[in-house]
Amino acid sequence: MTADARPVAAVPGGRRGLASPRPLAALWPRLRPHGAALAAAFACLVLAAGVGLWFPRVVQDLLDSAFERGDGTLLDRIALSLLGLFAAQGVLNFVQVTLLHGTGERVIARLREDLFAHLVRLPPAFFAERRSGELTSRLSADLALLQQFVSAWLGELARQTLFLVGGTVLLTLTHPSLTLTTLAVSPIIVGTAIVFGRTLKRASAGVQDQVAEAMGHADEAFGQIRTVQGFVREAGETRRFADALGEVVARGVRRARIRGAFFGFVGFVAFAGVVAVLWQGGRLVLAGSLSPGALVGFLLYAITIASAVGALASAFGNLQESIGAATRVFDLLALPPDVAEPAAPVTPAAPVRGAIAFEDVHFRYGPDLPDVLHGVSLAIAPGEVVALVGASGAGKSTLAALLPRFWDASRGRITLDGHDVRTLSFATLRGAIGSVPQDPALFSGTIRENIAYARPEASDAEVRAAAEAAHAAEFIARLPDGYATRVGERGVKLSGGQRQRIALARVFLKDPAVLVLDEATSALDSESERLVEQALATLLTGRTTLIIAHRLSTVQRADRVVVLDHGRIVEEGPHASLLAADGAYARLYRGQFRDDPVPA
Q: Which of these, 317, 422, 471, 573, is most buried using a 10 Å CB contact count?
């Protein structure tokens, strides 16, 4: 796409659409299909926690019965029973952790897939204002936090809640007055959790946002590595990335301080309750109203509760981080596409012929931006080749981008074979259109994979035929691995002419009824241009073609030339007729096309 098709400010696709649901509530439908595994994991967790809660009771019996009676056999039996209980607890913990982690892997993998599938269906307008590094951070870092929540923190929250509730119940049954002393600190802990939790959630969101910003810098530098190195900006880009990482560290340290203060304060308050129980229980032992064994058992329960409170404080902090990550993920999933599939798409009765009509089309890139196209009306017959010419910014690429619905017209309509393009499914509409951009981007796989991207199910013979039609077979045969040669990211291992011919082979394989051609020869050497021109001569035969023309050879190939100026059609007709009229096209020809060589 050329410069005149790019938005210059915020675009509709980036706006926030529907409000996302509460993040953890939105996660639940994805957990529901794994209900059996989660129920089994929870059952194992309850049984394992029950073993842990029974341990203080066994210790109390050990002290009060075995030692007072001097019964060694009872002591042996209690010790063996404890070993058996803890062995069973180990097995239960193994099953519970395996089930939870397996469920977490499956749920997050599906969520990651759904998020990716949603993002690749959003229109180019969305990506115009979002850096790809930010989006990959959402797919990786944010979902990694959610995976930790499902796999580990969810189980830890449940386990420590069971210890807290179960320990409190057993304490109450043992000695109600000491239980009140233990639980007196609860309001302080709950209030602290509410205050710190909100602060921690904001701090965690700030860290994740800054990580996404830093990854955006890195992704941008990698994508423009030749420019970075060509201008000797390696040190500058490193400093920019280091500055972004410094902000990540600063925000991370602030989050750590908040978590540390929260965890430290809650831990102090919880174990201060244990000290109070020890002091009060010691006085009861001295008064003879409580046995030493009962005091030890009670203290173990109090320590269990205090430890559970401390662990819950830590898990609560992790939960707040997970909520922040989930909010960002589900906000993205809730974004509605500005360009969406029709609810009930029209199914054409016959194969697409390629009749195109632009009817009073207006377009702007944002609600607060001026129109780029002003009432454009243009009819193109099946098989006709139309060249769009005009100065940079005239609206040529914008008009071509509206046909496959990368954007939708603000007013007016566009039809294909008489059907409004907004009523056709993307498979029908975009499946009928082939595009050859000025600078084609290839994927990092093999040459065969890049050609077959148009039709992954194509046979080797079909791929080779497409390469031959695009005059690419000869240079492919000279490569060490032939069609299995890997081209590198964006095809950096190939020359511009080779990349262009691979892109043409891809379109030959697709065999579309409509071709959108952003001058494919303007940046090529003479030999590459000659080969690409020969391929184009074959490709255009029998296809409706819309060409964004920059060179005389392309203009002369067209059946009709359409001149755009500031988003309006000012002239149209055959090349010779427009020259004879001595109007806008003649002036453009004299200034831009006159000295262009015409290939033989």
A: 317
Q: How far apart are CA 244 and CA 252, in angstroms?
A: 12
Tell me yes or no: is domain 349-432+514-522+540-600 CATH 3.40.50.300. yes
Helix or strand or coil: residue 180? Answer: helix
pLDDT tens-place string over residues 44-75: 888 888 888 877 777 776 666 655 666 667 76
Q: Which of 394, 298, 404 is nearest to 352 (CA)?
A: 404
Is the domain 438-511 a CATH 3.40.30.10 member?
Answer: no
- Nearest-angstrom CA–CA distance, 354 and 368: 34
Residue 543 backbone phi and psi in degrees, to 5: -115, 145
**Could you tell me where in the chain the CATH 1.20.1560.10 domains are found?**
19-334
Burial of residue 565, with CB atoms counted within 10 A of its CB: 0-12 exposed, 13-18 middle, 19 or more buried: middle
Residue with tokens 């129920």: 39
Q: What is the dihedral of CA 86, 92, 97, 99, to 10 degrees?
A: 170
Torsion angle defined by CA atoms of residues 121, 124, 130 and 133, in that order, rounded to the nearest 10 degrees: 70
CB 100 within 8 A of CB 151: yes
What phi and psi, each to the nearest 5 degrees, are found at residue 547?
A: -115, 130
Q: CB count, 10 Å around CB of 281?
A: 22
Query: Which amino acid would we find at residue 3?
Result: A
Distance CA 315, CA 263 (A): 10
Please list, in sequence order, all residues whose beta carbon lies within 8 angstroms of the beta carbon of residue 591, skipping any fewer than 6 positions away: none
Quick one: tokens of 498? 């080779």
Residue range(s) in the chain whose domain bears CATH number 3.40.50.300: 349-432+514-522+540-600, 438-511
Query: 381-393 pLDDT, tens per residue?
Result: 999 999 999 888 8
19-334 topology per CATH: ABC transporter transmembrane region fold (1.20.1560)
Q: How confident is the model at residue 373 (pLDDT cuts 50, 70, 90)?
A: very high
Q: 421 pLDDT exceeds 90? A: yes
Q: What is the mean pLDDT of residues 278-286?
A: 77
**Would you give the DSSP letter of residue 368?**
T
Three-state secondary-structure class, residue 182: helix
Residue with tokens 């497409």: 466
Pairing of β 411-416 and β 419-420: antiparallel
